[in-house]
Specification:
Largest sheet: 6 strands, mixed
Shape: globular
CATH topology: Rossmann fold
Bound molecules: adenosine-5'-triphosphate
Membrane topology: Peripheral membrane protein
Order of helices and strands: EEEHEEHEHHHHEHEHEEHH
Keywords: ATP-binding, Cell membrane, Membrane, Nucleotide-binding, Transport
CATH superfamily: P-loop containing nucleotide triphosphate hydrolases
CATH class: Alpha Beta
Domain ABC transporter: 2-241
CATH architecture: 3-Layer(aba) Sandwich
Protein name: ABC transporter ATP-binding protein
Number of domains: 1
Oligomer: single chain
Low-confidence stretches: none
Strand content: 25-35%
Number of helices: 10
Main location: membrane
Strand order of the largest sheet: 6-7-8-3-9-10
Radius of gyration: 18 Å
Length: 245
């Protein structure tokens, strides 16, 4: 689903992310962890060709599309529909004057998805939201509900992969768990590929199959999450783990 080789992203000649290898298969969750400024978000955005002003080298294949050489039309076709981007604060991305149902209906029409009412009901159920939420405006729902709605929108549009950038860091701890549970179920039961960027190792340990640890733009360690988190090979990973409360 996602296949990256020798990715190198630089701004004005300064390399900010170098990722030799990153693969995410359907049904798999891979997490990129590391402190602020380590290049996690840049890596995620490069997968959708969204690093404006950057020089991007290497090979990036996402949903069968060669991102580095894709045309704007090819990129539009994968963004938002086949591959969804879930950000930290979904409320900011939702139009404040539209009820959530209207917003989802419009998105489905725009992407040519038929049978909208059934698709919407099914997507809302998949993220464990009450269907009544579709009658509400973005400011009338909690951060956790808005995040699950953003994921429902991705499901309704037929997403095969979700790229999530700190999807729970703006949420309360109890609500974080709900969002993580939804993402885990979508991976396990619907075979979605999930690439999760997070600085929260506790969260990562509950969901990720594999982990990449980034520091100052470089991948310092990668491997199965259980191994990396239990027996970190790199001092930096050990530091991150020791910083856990
Ligand atoms: N548009 C840009 N122009 C110039 N430099 C940028 C740009 N975007 C990111 N960078 C630089 O790239 C480096 C990596 O940033 P990135 O946002 O990928 O880190 P991150 O690990 O996701 O951090 P955070 O957790 O704070 O989001 C930083 O030094 C940042 O200043």
């Amino acid at each position: 689903m996602i296949e990256v080789r020798d990715l190198r992203v630089s701004y004005g000649g300064r390399v900010v992310a170098r990722v030799p290898e990153l693969d995410v298969a359907p049904g798999e969750c891979v997490a990129i962890v590391g402190e602020s400024g380590s290049g996690k978000s840049t890596t995620l955005l490069a997968l959708l060709g969204l690093t404006e002003g950057a020089e991007v080298g290497g090979r990036i294949r996402v949903a069968g599309v060669d991102v580095t050489s894709a045309s704007p039309a090819e990129l539009r076709a994968i963004r938002g529909a086949r591959v969804a981007l879930v950000m930290q604060s979904p409320q900011a991305a939702l139009s404040p004057t539209l009820r959530l149902g209207t917003l989802m209906r419009r998105a489905l029409r725009l992407h040519g998805v038929g049978d909208a009412e059934r698709v919407m009901a099914e997507a809302v159920e998949a993220v464990l939201l009450d269907p009544a939420i579709l009658r509400r405006y973005p400011h009338e729902v909690s951060g956790g509900q808005a995040q699950r709605f953003a994921i429902a929108l991705a499901i309704a549009l037929g997403a095969e992969a979700i790229l999530a950038d700190e999807p729970t860091s703006a949420l309360d701890v109890t609500v974080q768990a709900e969002v993580v549970a939804v993402l885990r179920t979508l991976c396990a039961e619907r075979g979605l590929a999930l690439l999760l960027v997070s600085h929260d190792l506790a969260l990562v340990s509950t969901i990720a199959h594999r982990v990449l640890v980034m520091r100052a733009g470089e991948v310092v360690e990668s491997g199965p999450a259980a191994r990396v988190l239990a027996e970190p090979a790199h001092p930096y990973t050990r530091e991150l783990l020791e910083a856990l409360p």
